Amino acid sequence: TRLQGDWSSDVCSSDLEDRPVLEGFADLVSETDAGLLVVDFKTAPGRSSSDQYLLQVASYAYALQAATGRTVDRVVVSYLAADGTTEESLEGGRLESAIAEVLGAA
User: Is the pTM of this model over 0.70?
Assistant: First the structure.
């Protein structure tokens, strides 16, 4: 795993403590003063399930933390549409709860 500034379309995977292999593509991972920021862009028409997408980026946060030992401060799902962009994010306790939910489902 490599982290130097911003990078995108890289694989982050983690196979730790008898957990299943987790693999995915983060659209954007950036370093901030507070920790890593993970962004996933959605371009499909409509928003099918924001909870599903937030759990997806929470799983990226878990994998990044496990693989790098660095803190993920915030995850963002950015919905791109012709009529504008909206975002949802998780950080702090909400992010920790989402990661726990992901691990409970594994």
Answer: yes
C-beta of residue 81 within 8 angstroms of C-beta of residue 87: no
Mode of pairing for the β-strands spanning 84-91 and 72-81: antiparallel
- Report the distance separating Cα 43 and Cα 46, nearest Å: 9
Which DSSP helix (H) or strand (E) runs through 63?
A: helix 50-68
pLDDT given at position 7: 44
Cα 33 versus chain centre, distance = 18
Give Cα separations from 20 to 14, 15, 34, 42, 59 (angstroms): 8, 6, 29, 25, 12
For the segment 90-106, the average pLDDT, to the nearest whole number, is 90
